[in-house]
Amino acid sequence: MTNIGSFRVGRRHGVVLLAILLILQLFAVAYFYSFFQQYGYLPSPFIDDKSNTFMDLFNTMFWAGRVGGYEIWKSVYPPLVFIILDVVRALLVPSFTYNTGTALRAGGYNVEIALVIAYCVLPALALCLRTWADFSLKERLLLYLAAVSSIPFLFALERGNLILLVTPLLTLLLGKSVRLRVLSLLLLINIKPYFGILLLGYVARKDWDELLIAVLVTGATYLATAAMIDVNFTSMLLNLVGFSQNANVFALRDIFSLPSSVSAFSAVLSAPRFIYSRYSTGWLNPLWLAGVINICKWGIIGWALTALLRAGRGVNIEVAFVVLIIVTTNIGIAAGGYSLIFYFALIPTLKNMRYAPMYFLMLAAIYVPLDPLFPLVRNNIGTQISFLAGHAVDVQWTVGLVTALRPWFNLLLLAAVAFELSGLRRQTVRCAVQLHEHHAKGVLNLTGDPDVN
């Protein structure tokens, strides 16, 4: 049983909430399938380029084992990713010459099957780990179905993004084994470099020994894999800097396909393409509004990080990682909306936190699959070749109310976690003061003060 003041939530209530969410998601999956059968493409919030399905995977695989991945394509994937995909390509793709990633996809039917199998197996593998031991078989089955039918997971599958690999790794990260924690951390950082922010968890807790080990093994893995594919180890780091500073990497429609961060709003509002478009209004300065949004975002991120640092050893490492993962999904548009799949692995840790019911309600709001309803923007973007349908289709792109609200629910989740950490700090200080007072009374007793009880 979990308490928020007088608000008590039992396991039965959690199962009911999860079942309701699952029913909504299954209805959404049925809607997506029906829409695809009728129109030949997946509707919003799936990416607007209907010819680009699975290309996050095949574009990266195309450059695996080729010269120029960092110099020409400007990849921000670490060398380990190229090694993994080069092995997958050797095992599953016929050994012909492919001149583009699209051509590789045409010959990579076995890879697509393996991707779907991995999509189904990886969340199940995560649920079999000891971190989920407190959950019943019924709860884990509901959680599995809710995960694989959710929009963030389906979005990642449609893109073919390697982010699908992180679900079991995050589960290991939030376990109790130090060795498995360090192993999962080095793999996470060497798959998605932005997971480097998790090292701040050790800094907050002053776990210098584990921090040193994590940095050394992660760095050694990066250098060793860079040497294996014969690239300059600084290449990816320079690309990361350029990627973070380039505001034009993503098209505006891509930014708003499935945003996880309110940075999507500030990025669109400050883009010249929006300022001079028909969607901009004369009575509200979009640059001013983008600035207000950024101030709100960075204010809450700063609050969360400050609360984490001040809490120090008063918070365990699993909670520190949870806070930093939520920060990652809020910090910018680079992580993408599929980063919301991280929250699946956070559930066992969130369950033991003080405001767990509030967090689960926010997660339900983030995952609720009502994006096709209540469209705020509707735009016909012309005829495209749909990869899934195999023929030309007329594409209607929309942004729904839920799609627009999701980043704000995500920011609210971060604010709620920051509030709990701030309260933990106050509680720690209060306990320290009380301990000091008791200690002072003990000293007075030793001196024979008759007024001390």
Summarize the structure.
This protein is mainly alpha-helical and 453 residues long. The protein has 20 helices and 4 strands.
Describe the structure.
This protein has 453 residues and is mainly alpha-helical. Helix 5 runs antiparallel to helix 6 and helix 16 runs parallel beside helix 20. Helix content is 62%, strand content 6%. The protein starts with a strand and ends in a 7-residue tail after the last helix. It has one domain (14-446). Strands 1-2 form a two-stranded antiparallel sheet. The protein has a two-stranded antiparallel sheet with strand order 3-4. It has 20 helices and 4 strands. The protein is globular.
What is the CA-atom radius of gyration, in angstroms?
Answer: 24 Å
Helix and strand pattern: EEHHHHHHHHHHHHHHHHHHHEEH
Question: Span between N and C termini?
Answer: 38 Å
The oligomeric status of these chains comes to single chain
Structurally, the number of domains stands at 1
Number of DSSP helical runs: 20
> Which of globular, elongated, flat, extended, rod-shaped describes the shape?
globular
The computed structural class is mainly alpha
